[in-house]
Amino acid sequence: MKIETITLNEKRNVTLTAMLQATGGEFRNVTKRPAVLILPGGGYLYCSDREADPIAFPYLEAGYDAFILRYSTGEHFAWPNPLDDYDQAMDYIKEKADEWGVMADKIAVIGFSAGGHLAGAVATMAKNRPAAVILGYAVLRDDTAHEITEAPSIVDSVDEKTPPCFLFATRTDSVVPIQNTIDMMSALNRFDTSYECHIYDFGPHGFSTADSSLLSKGTLISERAKNWVSDSIGWLRDVLGDFDETGLSKPVCKAHLTDDGEAWLSLDCSVSRIYGNPEAVKVIADTIEIMKKKIEPFSPELSFDDMMGILGKMKLRDLLAERGIDIDRFDEIDEKLSKIPNI
């Protein structure tokens, strides 16, 4: 493994540490790697060592390259310095992506506490939004900010461009109340953004990987809290893709619950979006005829159109799979729909 530290801003002591693994050779199918960019916590006063290298190691083991950004803190915190540091770091990584063997479009950001606030900011307002974000006991509400009162509320900044998010925290966190995580879930839900969340029943703030080597003696924390690491790696494989002979497989989990916001129709659009489009109804007319036979109304007075309204929020893919309709033709149906503008 090659480790390189780059100074991005000498005056503000901003550095980017790159931990780069080999490609090719014994790593037969790996020509480029996805990556994680880690933003340690520390209340914007410093960058915690406990949330830097120890976080990188399990992702390196899982095949990712890892970057650690030590962003502007202390006297240099003034917003938006940390956000500018992130964009500068991402610009640098993308510029070096070919040389380093990094998939520039498969970079996830991991942030903790105040670093989680910064990770939330990059997910909602940065020039270089990442492909996915992991938020650990993160500051996400403006009323939790304390020393970061000039920084934005992340919950209020979530929009349709926010990437998939993985959240974890403990119910008894006395520094960053759990309402931060709960409200972030609600905000993501409003925009149908994909997310996964783990709230453990008890544990302190700033538990990092929850390994005993990183906790104070006598710390009370759920035995399951350490599972966020392996769960987040599995989640990244869902939303970014997993290693295969092509590089990375196609993600099994899309950025949004449906494709209703995409430019073209697909099987992953909602039933109401597809059934409400005359051109779509025309090109999948044979499938709709089968649907009319297999989707029985909930009551005798309901028509097929009524049922389409009731089931309208389901993805067409899910409805067809549930009723066993044209499953072998999914690729063909998806191809037909992909040629129809989503208007």
* Count of DSSP-assigned helices: 11
DSSP summary, beta strand count: 10
User: In terms of structural class, how would the helical and strand content be classed?
Assistant: alpha/beta
**Roughly what percent helix?**
25-40%
Tell me the span between the first and last alpha carbons.
49 Å
Strand order, biggest sheet? Answer: 1-2-4-3-5-6-7-8
- Please mark out the parts with pLDDT under 50 across 5 or more consecutive residues, or reply none: none
What fraction of residues sit in β-strands? Answer: 15-25%
Please outline the major beta sheet.
8 strands, mixed
Quote the average pLDDT.
95
The sequence of SSEs as H and E is: EEEHEHEHEEHEHEEHHHHHH
Radius of gyration: 23 Å
Q: Per the principal axes of the C-alpha atoms, what is the gross shape? A: globular
Question: Which SSEs are present, and which pair or pack?
Answer:
Layout: E1 2-9, E2 14-20, E3 33-39, H1 53-61, E4 65-70, H2 81-100, E5 102-112, H3 114-125, E6 132-136, E7 165-170, H4 179-190, E8 195-200, H5 227-240, E9 243-244, E10 247-248, H6 271-275, H7 278-283, H8 285-294, H9 304-310, H10 316-323, H11 330-337
